[in-house]
Amino acid sequence: MRKTLFNRLLFSYMPIFIVVITFTFFVFFQILSEQSRKEALNANKMLSLQAMRLIDTSLKAIDNMIMSETINNKQLIDFFNNEEKNNIFINISAVKKMQDMISYYPMIDSIYFVRYEDNFVLSNATSDQLSNYRDEPFIKKAMDPLAPKQWSGIRSFEQFSTKGSKPVVSLVRGAPFITGKKGMIVVNVATDSLQNSIADLYDSKTSFIGIRDAAGNDLFSDLHSEEQSKIFSNYVSSYTGWSYQSGLINGKLFHVISSLYNVWFIIGIVTIGGGFVWLIYVTRRNSRPLEQIVARIRGYRLPLSKELGDEFSFIESALSNIIEQSNQYQQKHDEDRHLRKRYLFHQLIEGDMGLTHEEWIGETNSLQLPYSFNKQVVLVIEMDKYSDFCCQYSRRDQNLLKFALRSVIQELAPKYGLVLWSEWTSPFQLSVMVFVDSEEEAGTSITHKLFESVRMWVQENLKFTVTVGIGEQVTELSSVANSYKEALRALKYKIVLGENRLITSDHIANHGQVEVFSQLNVIRSIIQSFRLLEDEWKTKYDKLMNEMKLGLLTKDEITNLMNYLIYYLGLEISGMTKEVQEIWMRDGLPRLSKIIDECHSLEQMREESLTVLNSFYTDLKGAQNRRLHAATIRDMRKMIEEEYANPNMSLEYLSSIFNINGKYVSKLFREETGQKFVDFLIDIRLQAAKRLLTETQVSMQEVAEKVGYTSAISFSRVFKKVVGYSPSEFREEAARRQIG
């Protein structure tokens, strides 16, 4: 019985085995033949790509040489800057430089220079005025500012009528390189040289290569018969815009053979499908006895379970319990792995990782992390206007949008050939570690392109924007923390440089604390003008904002300066009337503080704070105009500014002129200007003294008398007390600054 069942099963499957194995051998040899043809086709495609790269490399080398010589070569600079139009020595030097270029790059057919100032053309073979030069139409077209400055398409170039014309491609570069205002350099490369440069790459009897310029004109082609040839590859150069086409001479025959292969392959698929149907039929027929046995077992399952004390229920329960425990263990393992990854990421960016190289490799294997490459760079993606984002979306929508941001980075990275690791390090900052396995410049460029595309995608598809701070590339994992700090530092300049952009260390100037402190005097000057109701405070305020922007201060530095402005303004207001103090405490101070806390850009801060200050300035002006002696104090100030050189200028002098008690004058002066009379007078006199010390060479006694002091000793004592050093030292320092 067993032998019969065995033979039955064996002979049932034997036809399927024989048919499939036989056809498999046939298909194998067909695939082997087709693979050879495909390899030939791929080799032909690589031929076209190699030809494109070879020509592009040669043309780029010529282009880079021309740019370098335009910037650095003295002969070329002298030629285009030549004030003596017929200086033969300079022309000969320029021609010699052309010959050197042609000798160094044999692919170059000819070179000529065009000087705009006198329309003079100088080539390696001749010189003439532009109007007489045979290539004048091309030059006129190239002189158009809108004309593309790149390799031209094929064109006919003729230097001498006796030699005739030849097909060339030309490169036009301006001189100097940046502006191109003084002339141009034209380099001509014959198409025959391009063809000869790639002639050794292929056998013209079996394959061909054709090149067309951006306009579709043939530079050259080995294609002699379109009926016997077929194009199999077409590449377009991103540098020149030329298209490179290649194929086989007997391309039609190649295509027919490939089609026959497809027919045989379809027949094989049909045969295998038939064998699969036969397999199902035989299996179904042979499985019927087994199905009957299983059906009978299922019929006896329930009674048997009761007789055996529900043993099968126990087994089923045990299996279910094991599966459930396995699932729970896997879930817990995944959660622990995620937490370990986050913890390890924070250790890396905070500089607390103490793992050796072998331990790091073990962690990457266990946590499925990317292996460390030659270089790493850390970027911090910060969500702009995060407070508005939180107010606009629910917690669920916030998490969904953050997930979308992180996902798009993970999806775009493989397209740029980059491996990265990202984690949220704060509610509004996503930190990304990019592993670079290429040259430094190439890796940096690719990284910038990736995150520029991420920024644009977020701007177009999500309802918020992001700013990306980019640290510097580091070669050691222990230096990742430094790259992270650089990325955070770059984001501190977002308030000045603007949101929704990439910020690198190249965008940041190196400004120290001295520049920040230098703005304190400007702030005090603004508040003094504001306090004295001088309209020039607005001009000073705009100048302060521009200096903060040009000085590239961080957000913390700008916030500190603005808080100092509020503090100093409040200090001045404290010496004024109760009415003004109430307006400041009720309206001015709260609004300015809110603006500083909530503004996301320096321009927004300038506009909103200026609105508040203008409003408060109007209230302050109205309050002072309502006071009885406001006009009198303004007249006193004007008199002091005009007669500060009067040695008799004092409170008693003013009280006698304006018929007001001296002590009352002092009190009014303090209330209206925020300064003591003596301080105001000394400040004006010393400003005048500084001008005299800087701009003239008069003696100290004369300076003292011109600013209201009868004695040079008393003048020097007051000057040193206020300024910090004596008048003579001040004059010497000013002279050194002017010389420097």
UniProtKB/TrEMBL annotation:
Parts forming coiled coils: none
Keywords for this protein: DNA-binding, Membrane, Transcription, Transcription regulation, Transmembrane, Transmembrane helix
Domain of life: Bacteria
Transmembrane segments: 12-32, 260-281
Domain annotation HTH araC/xylS-type: ranges: 634-733
SUPFAM superfamilies hit by this protein: Homeodomain-like
Protein name according to UniProt: AraC family transcriptional regulator
